[in-house]
Amino acid sequence: MSKKITLLGSTGSIGTQSLDVIRAQGYEVFGLSAHSHVDKILEQVEEFHPKYVCMTNPEAAAKLDAALSGRANAPKLLVGPEGLKELAAMDGTDVVLNSVVGIAGLGASLTAIESGHDLALANKESLVTGGHLVTQAVAKHGVKLLPVDSEHSAIFQCLQDKESAKSLTKILLTASGGPFFGMKTEELRGKTKADALKHPNWNMGAKITIDSATLMNKGLELIEAVWLFGLPPEKIQIVVQRQSIVHSAVQYSDNSIIAQLGVPDMRIPIQYALTYPARVPGVVPELDFTTLKLLTFDVADEETFRCLAACKKAIKKGGLGPCAANGANEEAVKLFLEDKIGFLDIGRLVEAVVDSDSFGGDYTLADVYECDKMARAFVRAHL
């Protein structure tokens, strides 16, 4: 069945892989958004002919406007964060796929849900920073929330038997361990951004690759899993699976475990979110068991990788704790990529923010953005 897709964050790693899936399935692109990559989104506009395109960076939007000027059937241009929300709300799409990086994606996620659209979610920060707002909106508007992260898609796939899902007792959330697996604090002290950007298995953008190196990404995914699957954090065990073949697993009350396996390619979970509940042939090669000789499992070291410990503290505190951790991390990673702080400073600053307040209680969307601002200011004040 043909579908119309609105793709937010189309020029990033997840966005371009989503377009591979959309191309292979013959789906129609209703709308595209990017932050500042004008040349890349122009190529996408020429191939996919969306009705709408949004640039959240105003200067980039002006360049795109000039490039589109005079073109026949040019898409309507929307600008800025408000334009992104306007695009997410547009009637005429079947699924909104949100692959925007960071808390910038939260407003668009909520707007898509409130507009009655099914949401394929690759923006984990939507649930990390505003979990109860997102899940309440999904329940209120009766839409589907379809996970795109490979780990959460794996868990989602393992829970398709609704009767068995009632007896879920544990989630085994897998992690590659990143480029620094097995190293201790002293070994990490001098690591540079070039070192941290060398992920062993996945090809991802800079932010998420750094998050993988610090294990912050796994902490964020633990928080996301709490909201998606309704288990408390102590029932979610992080397991290092270095080959990134076992994408996650679930354990039931009889202690049987069901896992989802596949090659490390994000187009599998992207495709399942877009074709759900159908499974169809796609662009990803099959897992070749004739060459697969070894699957290893290990324990995540949260004593060394403090971002993971901080995320566990944050979700146990509840309320805006996860939002504070996320905001501090976004700011710290930005500073690390600018060579202004060291690798270990990321974990130190994230944990310090989480330890700085109790953070419990209900919150509004305005509270989320205020907490995010506070966390970023905290990081800059504690360099």
UniProtKB/TrEMBL annotation:
Its EC number is 1.1.1.267. The keyword Flavoprotein does not apply. NCBIfam families: Dxr. Mn(2+) binds at residues 149, 151, 221. Residues 145-229 form the 1-deoxy-D-xylulose 5-phosphate reductoisomerase C-terminal domain. NADPH binds at residues 11-14, 123, 125, 205. Residues 5-131 form the 1-deoxy-D-xylulose 5-phosphate reductoisomerase N-terminal domain. Keywords: Isomerase, Isoprene biosynthesis, Magnesium, Manganese, Metal-binding, NADP, Oxidoreductase. One of its GO terms (biological process) is isopentenyl diphosphate biosynthetic process, methylerythritol 4-phosphate pathway involved in terpenoid biosynthetic process. Coiled coil: none annotated. Belongs to the DXR family. 1-deoxy-D-xylulose 5-phosphate binds at residues 124, 150-151, 176, 199, 212, 217-218, 221. Catalyzes the NADPH-dependent rearrangement and reduction of 1-deoxy-D-xylulose-5-phosphate (DXP) to 2-C-methyl-D-erythritol 4-phosphate (MEP). It catalyses: 2-C-methyl-D-erythritol 4-phosphate + NADP(+) = 1-deoxy-D-xylulose 5-phosphate + NADPH + H(+). Its cofactor is Mg(2+); Mn(2+). This is 1-deoxy-D-xylulose 5-phosphate reductoisomerase. Residues 261-377 form the DXP reductoisomerase C-terminal domain. One of its GO terms (molecular function) is isomerase activity. Pathway: Isoprenoid biosynthesis; isopentenyl diphosphate biosynthesis via DXP pathway; isopentenyl diphosphate from 1-deoxy-D-xylulose 5-phosphate: step 1/6.
